Amino acid sequence: MASKYFSKKSVAQIQNESEKSELKRSLSALNLVSLGIGCIIGTGIFVMTGQAAAQFAGPAIVMSFLMTGLCCAFVALCYAELASMLPVSGSAYSYAYASLGEIVAWFMGWLLLLEYGIAGSTVAVGWSGYVVSFLKDFHIMIPPEWTAATGMHLINVPGEGWLQLTDDLVHELASKRIVAATLPAVTAIFNLPAALGLLVVTTLLVLGVKESATVNNVIVFIKVSVVLLFIGFGIFYINPENWHPFIPTFVPDTSSSLFGHPLGYYGWGTFGWMGILRGASYIFFAYVGFEAVSTAAQEAKNPKRDLPIGIIGSLAVCTILYILVSLVLTGLVKYTTLNVSAPIAMAVDAIGLPWLAFLVKVGAICGLSSVMLVLMYGQTRIFYTMSKDGLLPPMFSKIHSRFQTPYVNTILVGIVSAIVAGMTPIEDLGNLVNLGTLMAFTIICFTVIYLRIKEPTFARPFRVPFPKVTPVLGMLSCLLLIAPLWETFVTLIPYFGLGFLIYFGYGQWHSKQR
Ligand code: ALA
Asked: What CATH topology corresponds to 26-152+188-510?
């Protein structure tokens, strides 16, 4: 009885679908590495690094990056084995369908909605921060109440502009003899640039604009150049004093508590070793996307060899860049000042290099636009595949007669992501994405172990080294990073419930496989 929920696509069927693909095989190993970098470098490094340093880890955010990089390396090896074995698009969802069965595949698809759809909203919020800052350089001011998540309190700090009102900010102003209550304040209504950005991306996707390999290469070039410029110039302005203390400890100062809790306290994991773990869990977002390479399986010239190169290569490049950026960033300014919406540009401004700040903003805006496009594209294609399999209604695979794109699906995803981006703070969005992705990664590592036992003889052009250890370490490190997200997990229980309701109410009755 239960077995029907675990019906599987056979590996032969998956390979058959792959061979029937009409897509042109044009991507080389280098194109695949570039595709990976195109999706990886984004809001995580341009925005969240600063926030995580200011709130959780201080300069030791570098250690958080190392930790998360290691976790992703285990997972990347597992992904590489599956991608070389089952070179189909649709990534983790398809792998689950071929190995663990339909209900797990459905659950995976539901998790990927967090990884791709909500990640699209998260990147849009990061993008909005840089757009607002960029426009301000040209004296174009968007009313502040339309630049942040619904309900967020903002105050206008002389010389710095509109900042989120926090206890720390009030305290910092007080130390400069400025009383926060006397400054102009507003409550935000909606993050309009973020929502508009997503709607533009949605329109492009409906019209069938898909990032070509060449456009991707150009954008990756711009993005990586800006990051290298930041590292190359920044290194000469580092003040090693900013790295002390490297692992700050939180000392509650209840005497100066402002809103009923000690200043600078961000809950469990505020600084210290636990702060490094919480920071690692938060900046995990910066790594999200390395497995997007696997979605290009049907367009790779030599998928069995090049997919592993693409996945592992892009992850390696980004890990090195992230570690250098976080070292330089926390060396340029005191970590406590980094809790702003465009921290890298702010740090460069602070050391007196406005031209570099300008370039950073341009690079971030271009780079984040392409990440949004890739993530939203990925989301619509996952829904498309699920609908083709009968697990979602046919409207999700309805193709526009002229543009040849799944337009209903794209418009729906676009509108929902835009509303979510306009109303939700980046921290909450990031936590949702991280939790969903880490859960998906845990299943991926488990799938490798499962298939090694169930299909030991199947051809694996890329094999995970130390197969008894690597996937287990992958699962354990994902679970470790999930631990700080337990509150987000609790808030997601209704979401998971809804997912199963849709599967039992719709999916199981319409599944083509069954
Ligand atoms: N890793 C991507 C980013 O940081 C999703 O924006």
From this structure: Amino acid/polyamine transporter I (1.20.1740)
